[in-house]
Amino acid sequence: MGRTRIRDIRHEELISATITAVHKRGYAVVTMAEIAAEAGASAASINYYFGSKEKLMEATMRRLLTLLKQAMLERYATAKSPHERLMAVIDANFSDRLFTNEQCSIWIQFWANAPYAESLQRLHRINRSRVTAHFRAELRALVAEDRRETLREALQCYMDGVWLEAAQSDTPLNPAQARKEAREVADLMLVSQD
Amino acid sequence: MGRTRIRDIRHEELISATITAVHKRGYAVVTMAEIAAEAGASAASINYYFGSKEKLMEATMRRLLTLLKQAMLERYATAKSPHERLMAVIDANFSDRLFTNEQCSIWIQFWANAPYAESLQRLHRINRSRVTAHFRAELRALVAEDRRETLREALQCYMDGVWLEAAQSDTPLNPAQARKEAREVADLMLVSQD
DNA sequence: AATTTTTAAATGGTCATTTAAAAAAATGAC
DNA sequence: GTCATTTTTTTAAATGACCATTTAAAAATT
């Protein structure tokens, strides 16, 4: 058992601290010392556990992707129809756990820096592909082929845009409201199809 | 006449160089020396003309906002109906002059850094307010009141999302195609209204 | 000759990463 | 259980870069 216990705990702590510190200070300027302070550790220990600042950022982004994937699978489990499953993908993106100021903020930070760091770009693409695949699968049963891709693109861009706007907000977000609006928008687009 | 001629030329050149350099290297890591090299000048001359790196970034962002405003006004001039004016706002955002890899890229860079720099945040808010106001004004004649804000939000988020995605692309963008799709999306949402 | 523009070099500061040593935890023989 | 030994974890301090900004002087323009 607990062979790697401390190692795991420190990974958790330092990734958490990274999320908080990047949100507070911005990816562009946050320092190892600031992240370490946030976790009550020293900058040197980050390198002991992660090897470099870049690898820490990569691990942090990977954590965010895992959270989103989990939220998506959770909701998929109980959804029965294509329409319900489409809404499950939407709900996952705006779930209480994910749609917070801190996470929207850091998500955008990674997003903006993805084009300049191979490792971030890879992760970013994997994530987008997954969401695209889910949308395509469910829209197949809901929308005529000639409009399907337009609608999928529109929905995905809309969701990205909501996150982008949320990242600028300095008042607490309202995930339930965001889900409701996103469902309305999706239905608005689907209506003209039946 | 030409009293401030050279000054104006240098401002132009250095802002252009900033756009290119930030696109190439990222806001997070671009240096004064790189920007200067892009313009065939020295880092010291940037400080001579702009005072500091931060002020250069602010001036560059201001230039981008001016371009967008101009594109919007140009198209507004020939639009006659609310629907045409709505499309004018959309077209402006995806005009040939603005919807390029370089500009989408730098726009996202500024966007991501706005929460951490007072001067950028101010400019960013001014811009969003302007777009919001235009949309509200035109949608008033096109959409019932109870759905108006949802639709406006959706459209704005969609457009932001398209820019965000464009910034990740490494193949040349297609502004005409983007305009066509955006119009389709807008009409799709308007259809369910009449 | 006076003013504006330009830059090489100096300055001062910041930061990621490494190093070397200390502290803490685990191991295991008794 | 205890204590010496080995391994893991932690950090203070050193290192070596890098960079924005300033300075002082030269070059260009008026």
UniProtKB/TrEMBL annotation, chains A, B:
Residues within the DNA-binding region(s): 31-50
Any single Pfam family the record assigns to this protein: TetR_N
Gene3D superfamilies: Tetracycline Repressor, domain 2
Keywords, comma-separated and alphabetical: DNA-binding, Repressor, Transcription, Transcription regulation
Pathway recorded for this protein: Amine and polyamine biosynthesis; betaine biosynthesis via choline pathway [regulation]
Domain of life where this protein originates: Bacteria
Domain HTH tetR-type, first and last residues per copy: 8-68
Statement: the UniProt record of this protein carries the keyword Transcription: yes
InterPro entries per the UniProt record, alphabetical: BetI_C (IPR039538), DNA-bd_HTH_TetR-type_CS (IPR023772), Homeodomain-like_sf (IPR009057), HTH-type_TetR-like_transc_reg (IPR050109), HTH_TetR (IPR001647), Tet_transcr_reg_TetR-rel_C_sf (IPR036271), Tscrpt_rep_BetI (IPR017757)
Cited function: Repressor involved in choline regulation of the bet genes.
UniProt-listed PANTHER family: HTH-TYPE TRANSCRIPTIONAL REGULATOR BETI, HTH-TYPE TRANSCRIPTIONAL REGULATOR RUTR
Protein name as catalogued: HTH-type transcriptional regulator BetI
Protein source organism: Shimia sagamensis
Name of the encoding gene: betI
